[in-house]
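User: Good morning. I'm curious how S-adenosylmethionine would be positioned relative to this chain. Could you predict the structure with it bound?
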Amino acid sequence: MDLEVQKTADGSDTVLNKSIGVHYHSTNGAITEAEHVFITAGLNHFSQSDIAILEVGLGTGLNAALTAMHADEKGLKVSYVGLELYPLNTEFVGKIGYQKQLPSAAATAWNAISNAPWNAEFALGTNFTMTKQQADFTCWVSNQQFNLIYFDAFAPDCQPEMWAPEQFKKLYAMLKHGGVLVTYSAKGIVKQALRDAGFTVKRLPGPPGKHHMLKAIKEVAAH
Ligand SMILES: C[S@@+](CC[C@H](N)C(=O)[O-])C[C@H]1O[C@@H](n2cnc3c(N)ncnc32)[C@H](O)[C@@H]1O
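Assistant: Good morning! Here's the predicted structure, ligand included:
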């Protein structure tokens, strides 16, 4: 893969995959986007203490590190599975500046996550456990049940197979009733695929540079 670290508008880094011309985060602000889409609309939905989170597209680990910090602040106990088909190598991760760009608790978490082994559970403190799972999401199956899904695949135009209706049906089945899926994309086909899978879909204001994002809920009383 031909990758390059780039600065985004809020001063935080992201990664450009030059082979396919897509960024790992919004160029309008990587940390800003992660906070807005995944923490504010996703993690902050929950006040219960035990939450299982699935991230589709772990990438740099930025969303995971912010989650570890905020979960700790909120007193939440979290188990986190981060799925990634193409793990970044250690040398490349060393070029990403989150160590300096994140608040110190998130920077510490990011460092630990970056150095953790793949495909084995590890702990950050007493309330956060995580597995970095190397797998192809499109054919990944699991009988685990999650409360919260961070859907952070590359854009639908770039990787339509990740956003296919059957993938959202699979995720719906993996979500507990009352659970939530959040994603930065608000495209019509994504909304429709989520609705067809059974979700109640809400369009929320997006992070800088994007009008909207989506929050999809598996209703408590759903069939
Ligand atoms: C938008 S980036 C995710 C950014 C990430 N959440 C972060 O905080 O840095 C999309 C990620 O999906 C990964 N990916 C692409 N195809 C995949 C697949 N079939 N299964 C799992 N991950 C995949 C990419 O390698 C990339 O890391």
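The chain has a mean pLDDT of 96. Residues 29-217 form a domain with the Rossmann fold fold (CATH 3.40.50.150).
Let me know if you'd like a different ligand tried.
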